[in-house]
């Protein structure tokens, strides 16, 4: 269990905070908007109506003891930057921050924020990926154009041996096969697939694109 501060409890910040709580962490939520705080106060470890651009407020809340802080302040770029500066001055080592624009991102980069988040842009990428590659339910980008993707087997692939499916992506490595609650990490190439099976595979983008065309046009 870790202790997190989430500063800014609009839709993005509230989602981050409640998800962290669901993962059994402790969360201090901070926002100047009384309504936002009241909407979520009963779900968080501690929720405070406060101005996070005031370093004395952050110090009184003992934010420096947090394992990490998420600055989810939305429209007010100046407030976001001030908050990050205060957190840095207080010695909070792990800071993630939401960026509203390219200039905001650039400033946060110069402040050495560990991770900069673009929620709308990231969601747009995920929607586009889902529309473009219908067999992919989730993916994770690695370095050098490699991806790990989660594939759900549908009716068209039911009864098909794994090696028959993967001949359309021979460069792709199968990392995991899941059927119900059973996980198989060393997957037999002759494994017969069933509707509802999950495959986790790894490969370069182009072979994955080729495999996605097979799912789309089968």
Explained architecture:
The chain has 218 residues and is α/β, with parallel strands linked by helices. The protein is built from eight helices and eleven strands. It has helices spanning 11-22, 34-40, 55-60, 77-89, 102-110, 119-132, 162-166, 205-217, and strands at residues 3-7, 26-31, 46-49, 68-71, 95-98, 115-117, 136-141, 146-152, 173-179, 182-184, 198-204. The protein has a six-stranded parallel sheet, sandwiched between helices. Strands 7-8-11-9-10 form a five-stranded antiparallel sheet. It is elongated.
Can you tag this structure with a few keywords?
218 residues, alpha/beta, 6-stranded parallel sheet, 5-stranded antiparallel sheet, 36% helix, elongated, TrkA family potassium uptake protein
Map the helices and strands.
Blueprint: E1 3-7, H1 11-22, E2 26-31, H2 34-40, E3 46-49, H3 55-60, E4 68-71, H4 77-89, E5 95-98, H5 102-110, E6 115-117, H6 119-132, E7 136-141, E8 146-152, H7 162-166, E9 173-179, E10 182-184, E11 198-204, H8 205-217
Parallel strand pairs: 1-2, 1-4, 2-3, 4-5, 5-6
Antiparallel strand pairs: 7-8, 8-11, 9-10, 9-11
Domain RCK N-terminal: 1-117
Organism: Acinetobacter pecorum
InterPro entries: NAD(P)-bd_dom_sf (IPR036291), RCK_C_sf (IPR036721), RCK_N (IPR003148), Trk_Ktr_HKT_K-transport (IPR050721)
